Amino acid sequence: MNFISRTSILSLCSIFLFFCGSLIAQDTNVMIRALAKDAKFIGSSIGGAKIIVRNAETGEILDEGVTSGSTGNTNLIVKKARERYEKMSDENAAGYNATLDIKKPTFVTVEAIAPINKKQARVVSSTQLWIIPGKDITGDGLVLEVPGFVIDILSPQTHEAIAASNKINIKANVVMMCGCPVTEDGIWDANQYEIKALITAENGTTQEIPLKPTDKSSTFKLEATLDKGLYEIAVYAYDPVTGNTGLDKTNIIVK
Questions:
Q1: Quick count: other Cβ atoms within 10 Å of Cβ 7?
Q2: CA 85 to chain centre
Q3: Which positions make up the signal peptide (predicted)?
């Protein structure tokens, strides 16, 4: 009887430990990358992409951080035709390795907010998926595409007062969301894109004027003459091939 009791107790303990073990949370690693539309990975050179992983049912943040690393290998990402399962990332390509402490399959929402340091260009890209405890997602990992251009109006300055007798010099810097340069006949060809200024007067009338490339990479400019008044200036970029767009705004006073 003692032997049977001892055996039964040991069996029950084993079953208990088995089921308890199955409920113990496991660290599950998920590599998450933000890929600029028609360009490269968003990494350290432009400040990275903020990554947030949430439990889709409860909203609890399971992990968060910022992508770091290089924009990646240009040949792998944008030049070379890739076969199925062929990686686009290398060991230096920007990403964020999220570590999720979960004990059961969890449906998550993953957000990439990028570029995190460029508020006027910042875009949220998101997706959802099931994460299974202990089943890491590695290699290229989960890649979120981030559309847009980063546009910075360099001049005129915000709220700058300019004499009506003077030419208005509008200058803007235009790069891809990863920071990759836009140049004539380059990989990201300025000749392919429409880069224009929308100059709107306080009465609502708008002029649309193209900006031209300068000798400096990713820099575009135009000159205009405006009557006295208040103006909003928006500079936009549009790629008719991919549908990619970006925009920045400022306001000036002509007196």
A1: 10
A2: 23
A3: 1-25
